[in-house]
Amino acid sequence: MGKIGFSNMVYKVDITIVGAGIVGLSIAAQVASKGREVCVLEKNRTFGLETSSRNSEVIHAGIYYPEGSMKARMCVEGKDMLYELCQREAIPHKRCGKLIVASEYEEIERLEMLHKNGERNGVTDLRMLSRQEIKEFEPHVEAIAAIFSPSTGIVDTHALMKYYVNKAKENGGMIAYNSRVIDIEKVSYGYKVMIEEPTGNFSFITKVLINCAGLNCDKMAELAGIDIGKAGYKLHFCKGEYFSVGHGKNTLVKRLIYPVPPNKGGGLGIHIALDLEGRMRLGPNARYVDKIDYTVDSEQRKAFYESVVRFLPFIEYDDIEPEMAGIRPKIEEPDGGLKDFVIKHEYDRGLPGFINLIGIESPGLTACPSIAKDVANMVDEIVA
Ligand SMILES: Cc1cc2nc3c(=O)[nH]c(=O)nc-3n(C[C@H](O)[C@H](O)[C@H](O)COP(=O)(O)OP(=O)(O)OC[C@H]3O[C@@H](n4cnc5c(N)ncnc54)[C@H](O)[C@@H]3O)c2cc1C
Question: What is the pLDDT of residue 267?
Answer without folding.
Answer: 79
